[in-house]
């Protein structure tokens, strides 16, 4: 794993003082420029996706940052309810029961597609990075339908596939987001053999190296849906804990129950119930709580 470690050091990934984005904003949708200027979150620069290195390979430029997906931007900047939910999940991760170690590697998955697991992964990474002591690295392992890079306004390629298949330098593939202390390893171009790549010894080495290298960095893997991609079960065996995403109106109770039994209840950190419809009373309470947070 020496080569992998050298690649991380060369990229600046290991130097906490240089592994920070040039700005700490959250980006903005294209039609909200005026609002962003008036807010405490300035609009980020446009991303420069990649450039050729001396070996002729494609590498990411440092500080790549683009305009976020509008849904993610609104969830982080204009919603008083969602950020508190992810802070609760963050607390569960960082403060487990007595005798249980804080997980270094976490996999976010769902039973079926379109449950919102990538959205949950992005928000959890942001929440962890906004804490006082933790850094977070998101790894997009949904090689069939990647979504993380587009949520942060970054390019999907080059990424993890390039490292697993072509032995590109891993350090050249890790991109900074516009959130301080949050980095992203995109998926790369969709391969013809995603199950084989994620099940390879090289992928196992990635998980081990990233998890053991830094004490204050939590690695979050966005995996494919469990019941439609065999590689999800392979990745599940290599991480410390798993978060399940269940969407209201999505996977049924039998599917979720079967998934929990397959993974094992002791390995599940939590279950995120996504797209829950709040009632008027709940929204009123959370709105007041958000105001309390801002005022005091």
Automatic annotation (TrEMBL):
InterPro entries: Bact_polysacc_biosynth/exp, P-loop_NTPase, Wzc-like_C
Gene3D superfamilies tied to this protein: P-loop containing nucleotide triphosphate hydrolases
Assigned keywords, A-Z: ATP-binding, Nucleotide-binding
Keyword check for ATP-binding: yes
Disordered: annotated span: 1-66
Chain intervals with Basic and acidic residues compositional bias: 28-44
Protein name: Polysaccharide biosynthesis protein
């Amino acid at each position: 794993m020496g080569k992998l470690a050298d690649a991380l050091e060369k990229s600046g990934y290991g130097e906490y003082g240089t592994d920070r984005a040039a700005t700490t904003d959250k980006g903005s949708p294209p039609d909200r420029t005026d609002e962003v200027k008036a807010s405490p979150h300035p609009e980020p620069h446009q991303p420069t996706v990649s450039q050729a290195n001396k070996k002729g390979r494609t590498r990411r430029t440092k500080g790549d940052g683009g305009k976020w997906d509008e849904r993610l931007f609104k969830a982080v900047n204009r919603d008083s309810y969602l950020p508190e939910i992810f802070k609760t999940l963050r607390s569960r991760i960082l403060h487990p029961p007595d005798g249980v170690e804080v997980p270094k590697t976490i996999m976010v998955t769902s039973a079926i597609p379109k449950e919102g697991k990538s959205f949950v992964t992005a928000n959890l990474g942001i929440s962890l990075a906004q804490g006082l002591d933790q850094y977070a690295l998101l790894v997009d392992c949904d090689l069939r339908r990647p979504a993380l890079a587009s949520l942060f306004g970054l390019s999907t390629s080059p990424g993890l596939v390039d490292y697993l298949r072509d032995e590109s330098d891993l350090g050249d593939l890790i991109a900074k987001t516009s959130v301080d202390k949050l980095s992203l390893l995109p998926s790369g171009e969709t391969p013809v053999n995603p199950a084989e790549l994620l099940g390879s010894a090289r992928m196992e080495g990635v998980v081990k190296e990233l998890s053991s290298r830094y004490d204050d960095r939590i690695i979050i893997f966005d995996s494919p849906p469990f019941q439609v991609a065999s590689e999800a079960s392979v990745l599940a065996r290599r991480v410390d804990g798993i978060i399940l995403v269940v969407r209201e109106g999505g996977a049924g109770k039998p599917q979720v129950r079967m998934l929990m039994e397959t993974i094992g209840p002791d390995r599940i950190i939590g279950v995120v119930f996504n797209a829950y419809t709040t009632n008027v009373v709940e929204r009123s309470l959370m709105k007041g709580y958000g105001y309390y947070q801002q005022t005091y």
